[in-house]
Amino acid sequence: MEYRLFIDGRWVEGGPHLEVKNKYTGAGVGTLPTARREEVDAAIAAAERAAPIMADLPAYQRGDILTRASALIREQREDLARTIAAEAGKALKYARIEVDRAINTFAIAGEEARRIHGETVPLDAVPAGEGYFGFYLRRPVGVVAAITPFNFPLNLVAHKVAPAIAAGNSLVLKPASTTPLTSVKLCKILTQAGLPAGAINLVVGPGGTVGEWLVSDPRVAKVTFTGSPTVGKHITEIAGIKKVTLELGNTSPVVIAPDADLEFVAKRCAIGAYYNSGQVCLSVQRIYSQQPIYEPFTEQFVKASEAMVVGDPLDEHVDVGPMIDMREAERIEGWVHEAQSGGAKVLTGGKRQGAVYWPTVLTDVQPEMKIVAQEAFAPVASVIACDDFEEALRQADATPYGLQVSVFTRDINRVFQAIRRLNFGGVIINDTPVFRADHMPYGGNRQSGLGREGVRFAIEEMTNIQMVAIRLQ
Ligand code: NDP
């Protein structure tokens, strides 16, 4: 099937075509043109023309467009889920969950569009403000460039597109080159929902060219990026003076206190570690437990890991499909071999066939091993023995990242001890770091990013505060 770029409300051709493959079978599922400099330029120009139109669109109309988009996504649930499963290799059951989440993200944005407001400021709190009346408004920033990764081709796009529209901005969207087809379908839906021409523009092509042209363009007022820490850092270097939100990686830790329900924890950790082949920025990667639960937990976790069904993501029963490509599967295979040669033990998994890597449990790892210190982004988790709960918290926090962390305990004192000790954007108690509800504030501390998403919080990042001070006469 042939797809096009979407610029100024029209489906247009561009440069050399890109073939999108089914990540399990390797069969082609669609082709579309890549954007050259002229298409990127046209997309930004169209967004710039649409910016004042969007800014003037009343809140109820922006809200209605988003609500209609949510309903249309619901109508096209199965087609979107199958597109995600094919182009991203995500197991169909999780692709359906992703679509359900995007339905919510748009519905929430439809509501939030109606309640964007500032507040009054008591200027007379200082002598200089006596006789003045003050308030501030939240104004749209203008053109937003949204750059997204491959692992949630719909809902991570939704987390940028829906708040940008809610806030009254226009957009240029650049999805991951491996998974652009879902974004094409989303642009069709938004047009059908009544979004004005030019308010969303879709350009596809390599991050190193198309992405960088967007990030460095002075007409773009805001860059919102989800992806790897390396690219995120580079974006801060080339963006110039504009707002930037970065949602980057993590080496997600889980701390298990001795009072936790081990069978439950093991099952949740297995889903958290292997869902989407571990290619989730919140994937369970480092699991800290202590005696006397270390051995029984490890045994339960291996059992839960072996229960995962590996295979074609379009098969209803499959839990774990392929990784995004063979190179990524070979990379993680290399990391596991490297850990083994340093003394780590593979308790289950450690097997690769093409781009498929089997759910893998490691023990006896060392903090400096890649598999512990760097983001694995693969279906591999390590169980690490600690002396006590305090030590487990210390090791969990000993990372340059800070997106989400989880602690399993029924002891309220331990809960608050963990909240105080852990420098993460999200602390999840009694579930894995993968937990996310789409309206909650979400984002990383330290090297995991800048700013927050979660519709209302993304709207804050996509608006400028405008202060008004009126001298009373
Ligand atoms: P990448 O950083 O490789 O790519 C993300 C996007 O950035 C793609 O659209 C890519 O384009 C583009 N890009 C690449 N290079 C540049 C550049 N120089 N300038 C501008 N844009 C560029 O990430 P992945 O797609 O591999 O996704 C995996 C990463 O995303 C992981 O590190 C993961 O932790 C993180 N992530 C974070 C989340 C969060 O919420 N914190 C959620 C999901 C993922 P192209 O595809 O053409 O290379």
Task: Record the SSE blueprint.
Blueprint: E1 5-7, E2 10-12, E3 17-21, E4 28-33, H1 37-56, H2 59-75, H3 77-88, H4 92-112, E5 119-121, E6 132-140, E7 143-147, H5 155-166, E8 170-174, H6 181-192, E9 200-202, H7 207-216, E10 222-226, H8 229-238, E11 243-247, E12 253-256, H9 262-274, E13 286-290, H10 294-306, H11 326-341, E14 345-348, E15 352-353, E16 356-357, E17 360-363, H12 370-373, E18 380-386, H13 389-397, E19 404-408, H14 412-421, E20 426-429, E21 449-450, H15 455-461, E22 463-471
Parallel strand pairs: 7-8, 7-10, 8-9, 10-11, 12-13, 12-19, 13-18, 17-18, 19-20
Antiparallel strand pairs: 1-2, 3-4, 5-6, 6-22, 11-21, 14-17, 15-16
Helix pairs in contact: 2-4, 2-6, 3-4, 4-5, 5-15, 9-10, 13-14
The structure holds NADPH dihydro-nicotinamide-adenine-dinucleotide phosphate (NDP).
